[in-house]
Amino acid sequence: MKVTIRFVNNEFHTKREETCTISGQVSLGYALREKGIEIPYDCGGNGICGKCRVRFLTGAPEPTSRDRALFSEKQLQQGYRLACEAKLTRDCEIEIAESAGDIQGIALENVTTPFVALEEYGVAVDLGTTTIALALVSLEKKTVLKTTALGNSQRKYGADVMSRMQQSIAGEKEKLKQLVTEDIKRGIETLCLGYFGQLHSEKEWKPWIKRVVIAGNTTMCHLLLGYSCESLAVAPFKPVSVQKKTFTFQGIETIVLPGISAFIGGDIVAGLSELCFHKDDNPKLLLDLGTNGEMVLWANHRYYAVSASAGPALEGGNISCGCPSVNGAIYDVMIAGTRRQIKTIGNAPAIGLCGSGLISLMSGMLRNRVIDEQGIFREEFSGEYTVCDGTQAGEKKVCITQEDVQNFQLAKSAIYCGIKRLLCQVSEKSDLENLEVYLAGGLGVHLPIQAAINVGLFPKDFMGHIKTVGNSSLQGAIAYLCQPEIKNECIQKICTHTDVLSLNEWTEFEQAYVENLLLKKR
User: Fold this and answer.
1) Which of 65, 187, 219, 458 has the fewest CB atoms within 10 Å around its CB?
2) Is the Cβ–Cβ distance between 103 and 324 less than 8 Å?
């Protein structure tokens, strides 16, 4: 069938059009992806997130039950459908809204040191589920010369690791490997072009790159290395390998740092190796809250690790107007009665809610009684609250729905339970009073700590004890580039002195999880 696609970018007031032929035996979303046309696919095509919405101008198929659940009757009449659900029956015209909000080069402080002379260089990579961050490092001077970040292109197969594992098992393993490989290659090229400049071609700068070090969660490393995800995706969740892997990438020696388990990967190990918790006896807690919540406690001369399946809500996934931490993302919301004030990254026009904005909003709605402790909207809001009305130039209308609130509650309860599980390992009250909490990842950059405590994401005792450490995974990979022998020894000790705890085997988990769904201080 012939499909005419009209791409509309309301931010830049531009339009473009292309035509392709699609088989009616597959969903429109799958067919578009095969044609290389990217649309948001946070839930991996399960009809849950609602991000893959398209508008049929002609030839709209009958709405499915998921369409009816996510769109109003007026929107259905206007032709809105989920691409992952739509099965074509005739030629059609569709409209896809494009956004300039895709991650291009943020999430890191922009570090650039002027190019002086040729020397030996290395590249550190934090291979994240949502974002891939890279740093160009002088191996001689042991300094960071330039940083960059880009979106993980695998997100078209789903925002979370489980969706991508399922896609890998379903036959997309090589495609997923290719996507992330191309992303890393593109990131390295961006670093080198930005540092070496137009005067030096790839043929000239490539020999100067002596080593690449990659730190990533276990699933991302499996997808990069082409490992099977079949045993990783189902209980008891056994990875093919979490050992350090050395191979050649683009003619460059490349090291993938080791992990500990299926859900405690090389990104966490890299961060721990940089933070050096083991240098004193005081208990310390690392929280890396991304698509998964990975938490590690140093106490009693051992590491204790737990992973909480929080889902992608804290990174803007599975939230109807959610987005990553990009320019235009709302990171702070202040509510006073009927008045609202928002702050966006880069002071750009609002495009959606990132994780810190979501937490801030939840606290504000709770304080102003827009929602109650159970997360239920007051009747006059009809299950939806407008954060930004989208009337200013370049802005999008940003709303929060009842389903969004519930997704947040599920995520925050999982994180809180993980924290409480780890704190069971600290027996002395005096030790808890001296606990140092380190918050890693992009969420910590703008996270309102008081708001996080107000809604029960963190225990109230954490106030005054939290330090933000930025991208500890990338910092650890940089340190390994500069001191491989020292860091290798440190990493080996971390991997062999860590006890991995399971939330599912915690006898209090079910009760704690249900109780912590409430939005309240604890």
Assistant:
1) 65
2) yes
Distance CA 232, CA 380 (A): 46
Residues 6 or more apart whose Cβ sits within 8 Å of residue 340: 333, 334, 387, 388
The yes-or-no verdict on residue 105 having pLDDT over 50 is no
Tens of pLDDT, residue by residue over 429-446, are 666 778 999 999 777 778
Contact yes or no for 257/214 (Cβ under 8 A): yes
Note the pLDDT of residue 10: 47
Residue 320 is encoded by which pair of tokens? 């109807």
| Vertex 247: Cα angle to 265 and 258 (nearest 5) | 20
User: Helix, strand, or coil here: 295?
Assistant: strand
The tokens describing 92, both together, are 């059609």
pLDDT in tens, 173-187: 999 999 999 999 999
- Whether 199 has a pLDDT exceeding 70, the answer reads no
The length of the chain is 522
Query: What is d(CA 191, CA 6) in angstroms, rounded to the nearest whole number?
Result: 33
Torsion sign (Cα): 59, 62, 67, 68? positive
Tracing tokens 């802005």 back to the chain, one arrives at 395
237 HSE (CA, 13 A, CB side): 14
- How far apart are the C-alpha atoms of 515 and 409, rounded to whole Å? 11
Cα gap 393→263, rounded to integer Å: 42
- Name the DSSP class of 146: E
Q: What angle do CA 349, 328, 373 make, to 5 degrees?
A: 105
Of 48, 272, 66, nearest to 160 (Cα)?
48
List the structure tokens of 283. Answer: 């208990």
**pTM of the entire structure?**
0.78
Helices 218-225 & 173-196 angle (0-180, nearest 10): 100
Question: Nearest Cα to 359, choosing from 419, 408, 410, 414?
Answer: 408
Please give the Cα distance from 132 to 124 (Å, whole number).
10
Tokens 């594992």 sit on residue: 165
CA distances from residue 317 to 13, 49, 241, 341, 346 in whole angstroms, order as listed: 26, 8, 28, 23, 21
Residue 470 pLDDT exceeds 80: yes
Q: How far is CA 486 from CA 256, 482, 483, in A?
A: 16, 9, 6
- Give the helix/strand (H/E) hosting 166: helix 161-167
Contacts of 407 (CB under 8 A, 6+ apart): 311, 313, 318, 319
Rg (CA), the chain: 23
The 3-class secondary structure across 20-78, one letter per residue, is EECCCCCEHHHHHHHCCCCCCCCCCCCCCCCCCEEEEEECCCCCCHHHHHHCCHHHHHC
**200: Cβ–Cβ under 8 A, 6 or more apart, which residues?**
192
